[in-house]
Amino acid sequence: MRKHWILICFANFFIASLMGLLLRWMYVSPIEGVNFQFLMHGHSHVAMLGWVYMMLYCLIFYSFIPEKAQEKPIYNKLFWVTEIAVIGMMIDFPAQGYAFVSILFSTLHIFCSYYFCYLIWKDTKSISFPEKKMLRTALFFMLLSTVGVWCLGPAVGLAGKASAIYQIAIQFFLHFQFNGWFQFAVLALFFKQAKLTFDEKKFKVIYNLFVSATVLTLALPVSWYLSNPIFHWINAIGVVLQLVSAVRFIQIAKPQLREFFSNLSPLIKTVYGFALFSLALKIIIQLVVLIPELAQVSHEIRNFVIGYIHLTMLGIITGFLFGFAFQNNFLNPKNGIQKWGMILFLVGFVATEILLFLQGIWLFLDKGSLPDYYLNLFLSSIFLPVGLLMLTVGIFKLKPKII
């Protein structure tokens, strides 16, 4: 793997964080000529497809592709074509929103992801059972999620953008991206990093529960647009299955996890700890919103929505990605710039999450807005791009090739 791959991923993330910072400033002081909705589309696409997707591309390539297959030029060519698609979305979404050019680059990214799935499926043949199972499931969910994208055009033509079917298609894509492709991919990588081994029968039980939970919990976002009690109960079953799967996993893997964490440096241990804590918090939130009144409120109060998305994106997914990057020497925990960059990023993440959820609770209790809420949220958010900039600058000090 080449250094510039990792550098590109972090540069994408840094740009996405600047877009997010600008979005938060616009609540403090609107900027003439900048369309908030367009910028938000740019921020979300670059964060998901320019950071998470591209970083998973690098890590999966590095961790699961045999050295001989890594020499194939197609992986480098595909990386750059995919990055061109990201740059296109980075430029055109803030300028025009969903328009011909941005949709064209989004479509290019989807076809690149299809080819990536084909290459990974073909070249990963000698990895252990649990890792292979989780990785292939992640790829399956990536493919499945794009069904939602392909349904958007017909949904607009038949019912319009305000229709339930259009909104459900968006939620279908997001659900199976975050809870399917991203989550299963980082777990496959975590199994690889921690060298976890399982009895095949016991693992299959955990795996089947987790996959079932992932599918069933789609019912929650569907319930926001289709009012039927059945969706509440389907989601409830999914959340319970997820909890059972998580508890069973911890019971079986606890000795191996203890050994794995005992060999980590304090910084890497902290990063993984944030990721695991965020995952536990996500499960707790899913249990809390099983109360029907809170399920509706969780969707209606935007602070909760943004806080939950960032908990998943920055806390869980990015937390694990940072952990993998440090462990594989893509980032250096002994490098002062990168160490402080990581600390600042975590400070920004915690501060903004506290503010988002606290403001959401204030609105739920009809107490209005927190004093100087938007200004404080903006100031807390500054830590995120500053931390990312320091992490990115530190990558320049790495050797030209990271093998």
Number of helices: 16
- pLDDT average, as an integer? 91
What is the alpha-carbon Rg in Å? 21 Å
Overall shape: it is globular
Distance between the termini: 6 Å
Fraction of helical residues: over 70%
Find the structural class using helix and strand composition.
mainly alpha
As residue ranges, the low-confidence spans are none
* Main beta-sheet annotation: none
- Following the backbone from N to C, one meets helices and strands in this order, namely HHHHHHHHHHHHHHHH
- Per DSSP, what share of the residues sits in E-state strands of 2 or more residues? under 5%
Structure characterization notes:
By secondary structure, the protein is mainly α. Helices cover 83% and strands 0% of the residues. The radius of gyration is 21 Å and the shape is globular.
Question: Can you summarize this structure?
Answer:
This protein is mostly helical. 83% of the residues lie in helices and 0% in strands.
Q: How are the elements arranged and paired?
A:
Blueprint: H1 3-28, H2 36-64, H3 67-70, H4 73-96, H5 100-123, H6 129-159, H7 164-194, H8 200-216, H9 219-223, H10 229-262, H11 266-288, H12 292-300, H13 302-327, H14 336-364, H15 373-381, H16 383-395
Keywords:
83% helix, 403 residues, 16 helices, single chain
